Structures are given as C-alpha cells and as structure tokens.
Amino acid sequence: MEGIHLLGEWYDCAADTPEMTHSASLRALCVRLAQASSMTVVGDSFHQFEPQGVTGTVLLAESHLAIHTWPEHGFVTIDVYVCNYTTDNTAKAERLFRAMQDAMRPQRMKFQAIHRGGGDA
C-alpha cells in the first residue's frame, strides 16, 4: 500500500510543558491537531510514566500518529504514517507533523520521510 511515513527526533523541547509530562495534555494536543489536519480519529491510547514521560498513539482512519516524550532529556520521537489507498493523504500528514513540531518547539531536529509501498512484492 502506498503511503508516507514521517519520522522525527526532536531535541531540546521545553521539558516542563504539560504536553511533555502529562498524558491527558499530550492526548488532547494530538487529537486536536489530527482533527485540525483533516484526519479521521478512530481511537487513541496514551500511557503516563512515573515519574515523568508519556507514550501515545492516535489511531487514524488514514493510519496513525505515535509520539513518545522524555522530559528529563527534552526529547520527543514522533511518527506520522498515512496510507494513500483511495486518496493522497500526504499533505494531511505533513500538516499534522508540522503542527506537532510547532507545538513541541524543538531546538534541534532529525527528520526522515519514507515512501512506503508501491513496489512489487
């Protein structure tokens, strides 16, 4: 199945924000920005680590958003994957990725875009 998989490593994020440290805040941000990017949210699961850190996924009809925070290091990993089965969702994925990046405000970043599928098995 053709699609785009956007991968980010974000360094030097503000460690004391609710989105870095509390699952409910990160969940609310992810769901809101997914919907604002014209994605169809069909579920989510977020886990709060003690003493800090969050891992979460938002299940999208288009595929998924996964995010993990390490506040003690100001570090976030994120991936946004969409398939392009009946329509090209690339612009939606890019919009969601940029919106999340703007919200988490990393000072340094690593980025990869992987084009998935489209080849012969």
What's this, in brief?
This protein is 27% helix and 41% strand. The chain has 121 residues and is α+β, with helices and mostly antiparallel strands.
Molecular structure report:
The structure is a single chain. With 121 residues, the chain is an alpha+beta fold. The chain has a single domain (3-116), classed as 4-Layer Sandwich (S-adenosylmethionine decarboxylase), CATH 3.60.90. The chain has helices spanning 18-21, 23-36, 90-104; strands spanning 3-11, 41-48, 54-60, 63-70, 75-83, 108-116. It has a six-stranded antiparallel β-sheet, with helices on one face. Strand 2 (41-48) and strand 3 (54-60) form a beta hairpin.
Quick tags:
single chain, six-stranded antiparallel beta sheet, alpha+beta, globular, 121 residues
